[in-house]
Every structure is written in C-alpha cells, then in structure tokens.
Specification:
With 558 residues, the protein is an alpha/beta fold. The protein is 35% helix and 19% strand. The strands form six sheets. Strands 1, 2, 3, 4, 5, 6, 14, 15, 16, 17, 18 and 19 form a twelve-stranded mixed β-sheet that branches. It has a four-stranded mixed β-sheet with strand order 20-22-23-21. Strand 22 and strand 23 form a beta hairpin. The longest helix is centred in the N-terminal third of the chain and has 21 residues.
C-alpha cells in the first residue's frame, strides 16, 4: 500500500458516475452539466430549489507550514470520508489547484494517499476550464484598458498609473515586470506592465465571492483598473467591460462536483492563494455543500493566520456564514522544525525540539478559541516515526487550553483513519456552542484595522507603515474605501512578515509597504515583506518529472 504514489492510488480506484454522486445530494440530473463521466458543474438553481436547512460548517486549517508538510487538504478529505463512515452525510468544499504550483514545487492539491479527490489528474490540470475563463476575462479587461488609451483615452487614464495587470496560470518570474506596447504607434503606447498568476487576479476573488451572475457583474464593474491624471479611479464599468467578462465567466461561476476515493461528494471550485489573496473556495460551492449535506467540511489555505483569518474575517463576513467548529492540522515533524530541528533529523524522537515548536500550534489554537470563539480540535497527522511520548506531549499542552487532540491516519487508511476525528467534530458541533466573532471591526481607520489584526492574530507589536503606504491609505479612505476588510499579503512561513522567524515570535512589527483596493472583491490588499503576486519556478521544477504515455496515462503528478 505504501509503495504506491498518489497518482497510482487514484488511477487504481473505480470511480462512480457523477450522476450517482449527485444523487447522494438529491441533485437532479437536470441540474448537472457533465464534463465527461466523473465531473460536472451544478446549476446555481439548486440553492433555491432545495428546502432543507443548512448543515454544519467545519473549517479545516493548520499550523504555519514547513517543508515537512502538514496535510491540510488530505485531512479535510479524510475527515469528510470519516464522517460518512460514522453515518453523517458529509460534503467537501475545496479549492481548485493552480497550474503554477503543480508544475513548480508544491505539486497538486487534490489530497494524498487514500484521502484524495478524483479524477486527480483532471482536477490538478485543466479540470472544467474555470482558470482559463478567469484568465481570459482578466486579459480581456487588460486589452480594453490599453485599447481605450490607443483610441483617444476619453477617460483620461494615466498610462503610468494603470493598476490592472495581465495574468497567466503559471509560475513565470520573467513576466513580473515587463514593458509592453513596443513597435510604433499602431501597436499601443509603450508602458511599464506586468503579470500576476491567475489565482492572484481580482477576477478570481470576485468569482469566489459572488453569489449570482448579477452580483458577479456588479463586482466586476466596481474593479479599479487605474487612475486618471487628476487622481480619479477608473473602473471596469467605466470601460463597459463587465458584461463581456461575465459572459466569459457564466459557466465558471457554477460549482464543480467530483468525488473522493470513497465516493464522498466534493465541490472543488475557485482557487485564490491565501498568502496573496483570500485563500478560500467559492461562496457558491460552500453554500451548496451546506444546503445538500449534514456537514460541509471546507479548508482555507496555508496556516490559520492566513487562510483561516481570511475565511473568518472576509468570507464569513461577506457571505453571512458562521462556522460550527474548527480543525487545526499539525504534524509532529513540522512542530519539531518550528523548534529548530533540521529536516533530515525529524525521524528521531526529540521532545526538546517539539516543546520549542509547540507554541506555534498553541497560538493558532488560541486564536480560534479566544479570538474567534469557535470550538476547536487539533488533528495530528500521524507519521510512523512519531513516538507515543511526542504525541502525549502535544495532547497535554492542548488539553491545558481545553482543546482535544485526535490522531489522523487518513493518508494510509482513508475514512477509517478519520473516524475518531469525525466523532470529535460531531461532538463539538452538537455539544459546544460557537459564539463566532470577527478579529476586528470595520470601525476606525484602515491603519487601526491592520494594527489590530497584527496584534490579535499574529501576536506582534503592531505595524510600521511606509510613507508611500500611508499616502495610499489616506487616498483610498478619501475615495470611500476606508470601511472595507483587509486582506494581508505576507509570507506563509511565519506569523510575522519575515519567513525566517519560525515558531511563535512575539517581538516583531509588520511593515506595510503597499496598500491597494480590490473594490470588486470588497477588500483592501495590504502587501508586506517581499511577497510577490507572480511566483517563479524552482531550480528543479516538478514539471521535469511529469509525463504522459501513448495511452494518455499521466505519470509523475503528485
């Protein structure tokens, strides 16, 4: 069993026809748009037609990531399978993977081992074309911006202050900063330009936060593409582009239905990164999972200071969602890395390193319990090298916070290995009372909002705002954007904005270097540290190991 790769396990699984998976959710075939035998889009009308009350909402998040891995998506899938194993009608709600990391360093994002969503090759590659549609809509707007300037620039757009970038769903550092429009007057005005990765496009965030086509068009119309020479914002609606963009996105707005290896229904839809965007799957997919199942198990990207914070403070605030329980995923290996142990030394028992790394887990747990007031359980992804004494130490420390620990072996055993975690999640949802609160209010200034977030969630000393960022805050406030939630873009490897500060640092400030508005998405993006919206490929890209044979069978995808 352990010698099979993720893709080999997935390829050996006999999948159920997607109509059978839909039938488990009482979704009629008339509301399905199949993409082959094993995946389909689901009509938004399901949300209005199903009279059942919403199920329980369970958020899966994790400690601060390390190269040792945590297994958040794997745990999410295994928990959903585990809930089915104990008789609960569970549904997954996950993000779609981006091609950039698939061919880069992170690999796919369809789970692992015996806790995967399938068909994993499709999900990790083109899937139903959502990302292509988002990229096309984004780049249509970019083309209309430059065409408007070429055709006389009636709106007075300043070519030096165009904020709308083109995008491509690939890690390509060469495109971060470019000069476009070279080649004489017929070929466009030369100007500085650049690309974002598609998941960082505001169109991705808009799609994930929209509730209908009308809401989608309204949000697209509000997006700011640049500023005039007299400092007025120019929007997508000023260019009359929102209708055409929505036409490209009308099918992408519908959630995608697939299945786990054990036949648990899974909605996989939308895919913004949590270090540079809000890091959650779509509102429509989450609502559909809540409407069609007893338990919706969803995840948010990277550590709880990023994905979970944005899920709770942005997505839940906008969509009116209230989580019933939170699962914080950790591994003994990763905690020992936070305690200063090298990756090649993680297989040996080391209680001292574990104790030094545990504050990272405990801080995330405290945030869920003490700041957001949500019932919480810690899921320890068990590795064969974990010792009983190491696991007992984690249990003892979490118990001091009133939080239970459950071991998870879903990678090796699928839903069977998630049954104990599932029982604890059910207990939390049925016996513990969630008193959900946001970590900050929308009162006060943007600067106060960011400072509150840094102090309450990252547990730092506050913020240091660079003069350029301060000027941007003042200008955005004057333009009427000062009451929006904040979406902090920072390193995923630390509570701070310094990726080298592991564990639970507390004597740091976060430097705010740039602030910009995502008016369509409905939040202010706060850039810190050296975070970039276009990643690059590593020295040895995962793409070098991916291949396909004469029969179309893909290998090397993980």
């Amino acid at each position: 069993m352990g010698f099979l790769s993720d893709i080999e396990i997935a390829q050996k699984t006999v999948l159920r026809p997607i109509r059978e998976i839909a039938a488990k959710l009482n979704i009629d075939e008339d509301d399905l748009e199949p993409y082959g035998k094993y995946k389909a889009k689901v009509s938004l009308q399901v949300l209005d037609k199903d009279p059942r009350p919403d199920g329980k909402l369970v958020l899966v998040t994790a400690i601060t990531p390390t190269p040792a891995g945590e297994g958040k998506t794997t745990t999410t899938i295994g928990l959903a399978d585990g809930l089915r194993q104990i008789g609960k009608e569970s549904v997954c709600a996950l993000r779609e993977p981006s091609l950039g990391p698939v061919f880069g360093i992170k690999g796919g994002a369809a789970g692992g081992g015996y806790a995967q969503v399938v068909p994993m090759e499709d999900i990790n590659l083109h899937f139903t074309g959502d990302f292509h549609a988002i990229g096309a809509a984004n780049n249509l707007l970019a083309a209309m911006v430059d065409n408007h300037i070429q055709q006389g620039n009636a709106l007075g757009l300043d070519p030096r202050r165009i904020t709308w970038k083109r995008c491509v769903d690939m890690n390509d550092r060469q495109l971060r900063q470019i000069v476009s429009g070279l080649g004489g007057k017929p070929n466009g005005m030369p100007r500085e330009d650049g690309f974002d990765i598609t998941v960082a496009s505001e169109v991705m965030a808009v799609l994930c936060l929209s509730s209908s086509i009308a809401d989608l068009k309204a949000r697209l119309g509000r997006m700011v593409v640049g500023y005039t020479t007299d400092d007025r914002p120019v929007t997508c609606s000023d260019l009359k582009a929102q209708g055409a963009m929505a036409a490209l996105l009308k099918d992408a707005l519908k959630p995608n239905l697939v299945q786990t290896l054990e036949g648990t229904p899974a909605f996989v839809h939308g895919g913004p990164f949590a270090n540079i965007a809000h890091g959650c799957n779509s509102v429509t997919a989450t609502r559909m999972a809540l409407k069609t199942g007893e338990y919706c198990v969803t995840e948010a990207g990277f550590g709880a200071d990023l994905g979970a914070e944005k899920f709770l403070d942005i997505k839940c605030r906008m969509a009116g969602l209230k989580p019933d329980a939170v699962v914080v995923v950790a591994t003994i290996r990763a905690l020992k890395m936070h305690g200063g142990l090298a990756k090649d030394a993680l297989g040996t028992e080391n209680l001292d390193a574990l104790e030094k790394g545990l504050p990272n887990l405990l801080r995330h747990v405290k945030n869920m319990v003490e700041v957001y007031h949500l019932p919480c359980v810690v899921a320890v992804n068990r590795f064969p090298t974990d010792t009983d004494r190491e696991i007992q130490l984690v249990m003892d420390k979490c118990r001091e916070l009133g939080v239970n620990v459950r071991l998870s072996t879903v990678w090796a055993e699928g839903g069977k290995g998630g049954m104990e975690l599932a029982r604890e999640v059910v207990r939390l949802c049925e016996e513990e009372k969630a008193d959900f609160q946001f970590s900050y209010s929308l009162d006060g200034t943007l600067e106060e909002r960011i400072d509150t977030l840094v102090r309450r969630i990252y547990r730092g000393n506050g913020i240091s705002v660079l003069p350029a960022a301060k000027k941007q805050m003042d200008r955005l406030t004057a333009l009427g954007y000062g009451n929006l939630p904040v979406c902090v873009a920072k390193t995923q490897y630390s509570f701070s904005d310094d990726p080298k500060l592991l564990g639970a640092p507390d004597d740091f400030t976060v430097t705010v270097r740039q602030v910009k508005v995502s008016a369509g998405a409905g939040f202010i993006v706060v850039l810190t540290g050296d975070i970039m919206t276009m990643p690059g490929l590593p020295k040895v890209p995962a793409a070098e190991k991916i291949d396909v044979d004469d029969h179309g069978v893909i290998s090397g995808l993980f």
